[in-house]
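Sample pair:
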Amino acid sequence: MVRLIPAIDIQGGRCVRLRRGDFADETVFGDDPVAMARHWVAEGARYLHVVDLDGAREGLPRNLPVVEAIAEAVPVPVQTGGGLRTEEVLLRLGGSRVAKVVLGTQAVESEGFVERALELLGSSRLVVAVDAEEGYVKTRGWVSRSAVRAVDLVLQLAEVGVREILFTDISRDGMLQSVNLAGIRELAAALRRAGKEGVELIASGGVASLEDLRLLRELEPLGVTGVIVGRALYEQRFTVAQAHAVLAGQAGPPEGLARRGEGAISLETN
């Protein structure tokens, strides 16, 4: 079954969602990330994806205590990324309750760092994020566009031993415009041609409906094992339970979906 992984993005200590990674285009859904994590677990979430947006932009983690508090507060695996670019940070997270560490920028800028991360954490605790726009990888909080093609980076990562890759189509992230199925298929096909069928792909960016999840479930035989969902859950376009049902392949249309733009989750205390 493809895993549903609700996203918690932290900027300025609050839970936000960005559009296309634009730090100035945020929607605030809560000012207590730990409470938000507990909320999603209470709704049935079995995994969480936590991003330190401040860390991603500034190049060093800014919200590690919050991330660690989330991992301590919930009984489900938590993966985290954002500004994780030193061995010291990897060692700190490796000794915490955080289940998986997500690398981004350093995977592009330093192949040696990825290899070192594999040594320190093991392949089961390392995820590498390949964040792309128009087929090319962007780094440093999605601000800098590299000359590296997403498919080439994925193959390079697989070659050094990375076993889990998170692919985000930046142009769709937070836009509720459906997922980039063609891009995901391209990466999966490239891995299969290279004999790297064991590499798992997590899809991210653009999930807007249960139909998106159904289409992603059909890619499970190609190695798609997870999907990160943010705005669609926060705006209650579907529930965690409904998403699990679709990803499990259960028949029948889910009932009681919230109408578009209504009933957004908000855990703000002010």
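The chain has eleven helices and twelve strands.
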